[in-house]
């Protein structure tokens, strides 16, 4: 099944929402680092993986547009 292409305004809204989510995840990761005092703590690593996925989603979205 083919994926429907989003209109420019839908794509822009999706990009803005993803940017906000990325910013929020970065803050969560920084907070986890401060709390755990380790870049390799489970909390930091969990948020980091989610953040990586969202950044990859954003990059794919930008390449399509």
Automatic annotation (TrEMBL):
InterPro entries for this protein: HLH_DNA-bd_sf, Spo0E-like, Spo0E-like_sf
Top-rank taxon, per record: Bacteria
GO biological-process terms attached to the record: regulation of sporulation
A GO molecular-function descriptor: protein dimerization activity
Name this polypeptide is given: Aspartyl-phosphate phosphatase Spo0E family protein
Source organism of this protein record: Paenibacillus oceani
């Amino acid at each position: 099944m083919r994926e429907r292409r989003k209109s420019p305004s839908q794509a822009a809204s999706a990009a803005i929402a993803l940017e906000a989510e990325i910013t929020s995840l970065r803050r969560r990761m920084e907070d986890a680092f401060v709390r755990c005092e380790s870049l390799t703590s489970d909390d930091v690593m969990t948020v980091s993986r989610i953040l990586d996925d969202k950044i990859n989603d954003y990059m794919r979205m930008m390449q399509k547009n």
